[in-house]
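User: I'm curious whether this sequence folds into something compact or stays loose and floppy. Could you predict its structure so I can see for myself?
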Amino acid sequence: MSMAMNKLEMLPVRGELRYDASLAGFTTWRVGGPAECLFRPLDRQDLIAFLSTLPRTTPLTWLGLGSNVLVRDGGVPGVVIVTASRLRAMALEEDGRIYVEAGVPCAHVARFCSVHGQAGAEFLAGIPGTMGGALAMNAGAFGGETWTWVDEVETLDREGTVRRRKPQDYEVGYRKVRGPQGEYFLGAWLRLQAGDIDSAQRRIRELLARRNRTQPTRWPNCGSVFKNPPGEAAAHLIEACGLKGQRIGGAKISEMHANFIINSGGATASDIERLIELARETVKARFAIELELEVRIIGEAA
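Assistant: Here's the prediction. I'll summarize afterward.
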């Protein structure tokens, strides 16, 4: 442990603070090296207190469910903050909006909205991440996108300052969100439509059944690897190159959906990254299309 990391032991935390902690169990690919320091806050106040005293030069990385990220085998320097199962508050407020903290899984948000007669968020059941991640990338599924329903967000900076911001403070596009620098999503207020509880829950069941039919949900994966190019589908381009079933080590391009790479057993992050590059290079050579990553690749090579 570095001298800088040693100093973190002096910070006021009530949650879990570990050093040289494997991140494989915090990603849905189940691969990746260790975090130099891993912090799982007990609650939002614990997170605010930690950030307000964290040295400004310490590298900082955020993880929710780890579903849209590839952690390289060499691990991640600095502090990795995991919000999943920690920032988990949800509430139907008096003004009809639904408040969701960043660590709540999107599937839980979909169900919570449905049982409170709020329609529009059913698509979130198909997103294998947290609300914080969905806000950060405008996650979408089955034709729905997160920011369609965002009425207001709550952010946190490294000084521990909490702010409330409106959607007009952000530039939002397809799997892209740009906003004030140095602020992280702490939560959001969603304004949905009044709906029928049975209809909303039936829609969620239909979407989940469709997901299970069309995506390799039984294998460790990160969700979609590439963004869809304009007018094209990344999966169709990869399939047209004959890459379904292609393997490198324990990583494999899914035979069910070519925009998914699965850990078929014993894969390393390097295996997955090499397979990603193979898909990109092959599609570019055949179609002159540069596939853009939807997954984030973080950390250092082994």
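Summary: Residues 79 and 299 are 11 Å apart (CA to CA). The chain has three domains: 3-82, 90-214, 234-298.
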